[in-house]
Design goal:
By secondary structure, the chain is α+β, with helices and mostly antiparallel strands. It has one domain (about 5-230). Helices cover about 30% and strands about 20% of the residues. The protein contains seven helices and twelve strands. The strands form five sheets. Strands 1-9-8 form a three-stranded antiparallel beta sheet, covered by helices on one side. It has a three-stranded antiparallel beta sheet with strand order 3-5-4. A hairpin with a 2-residue loop joins strand 6 and strand 7 (about 80). InterPro entries: SapC (IPR010836). Pfam families: SapC. This is Peptidase.
Length: about 240
């Protein structure tokens, strides 16, 4: 269970964070939430799919790491083979907290129960001996800021996708080594045919709002599905 607290130099002067990557440290996940501002970086590695929230009131974008819960095909022991890790995964165990006062700056919170919080003397320091933020914490703060700005801007992006009907249901079928077929359902992708039918006015609006590039990045990212299948095949889980 999560144990979120406000990060302070007084309370967490000796805090260390484990930087290795492993299943035990929370990296064994099949997908991660992403924001449109990072689609260009994500599409170099992962398929980008969309899925309704559990409340089914809006869509979220996901970088896909595998085909079943707990499967991260980029994870190799205590390292990640991916060249880019989405912000929402990279900033763990930190998260964005609400401002202490109305109109104030947002705060950095910490999940004390996250497995990446080091219990011994190893790991990366968050504060130095004088209570100043280390370069590691400064990097985390910048990533949190980028992620928060991305969340704030994503509402307009998803509204544009809905307005132009640019999302369509997408089913991925994966053939297993025993010949059976698994189906990954419940996801959406960019509707390529609908995108091609948009007139110059609609395309101009999407471009002016900064939404056209992430749309194309999400569409291009589907080429990475074949790479995911190949990764799974190399692990002996799929037929070649």
């Amino acid at each position: 269970m999560a144990n979120h607290v406000l990060l302070t130099s007084d309370d967490h002067r000796t805090l260390r964070i484990t930087s290795e990557r492993s299943a035990a440290l929370g990296d064994a996940v099949m997908s991660c939430l992403i924001v449109p501002s990072e689609f260009r970086r994500v599409q170099n590695e992962y398929p980008i799919l969309f899925r309704l929230t559990p409340q089914r009131d809006r869509f979220q974008a996901l970088a896909m790491f595998g085909f079943e819960p707990g499967e991260n095909l980029f994870l190799a022991g205590e390292r990640s083979e991916a060249r880019y890790r989405p912000l929402a995964l990279e900033i763990q165990p930190f998260l964005i907290g609400h401002p202490a006062t109305d109109g104030g700056d947002k705060q950095i919170h910490l999940d004390l129960d996250h497995p990446r919080v080091a219990t011994g003397g190893e790991g990366v320091r968050v504060f130095d001996d004088l209570g100043r933020a280390t370069p590691y914490l400064e990097t985390i703060a910048a990533q949190l800021g980028e992620l928060d700005a991305g969340w704030q801007a994503s509402e307009g992006f998803f509204a544009a996708l809905a307005r132009h009907e640019l999302l369509e249901p997408l089913t991925l079928e994966i053939t297993l080594a025993d010949g059976s077929t698994n189906r990954l359902v419940g996801y959406h992708g960019i509707a390529e045919e609908r995108l091609q039918q948009l007139d110059t006015v609609a395309l101009g609006e999407l471009h002016a709002d900064g939404y056209l590039l992430p749309v194309f990045m999400a569409l291009a990212s589907l080429a990475n599905v074949a790479e995911l299948v190949e990764r799974k095949s190399r692990r002996g889980d799929l037929r070649g």
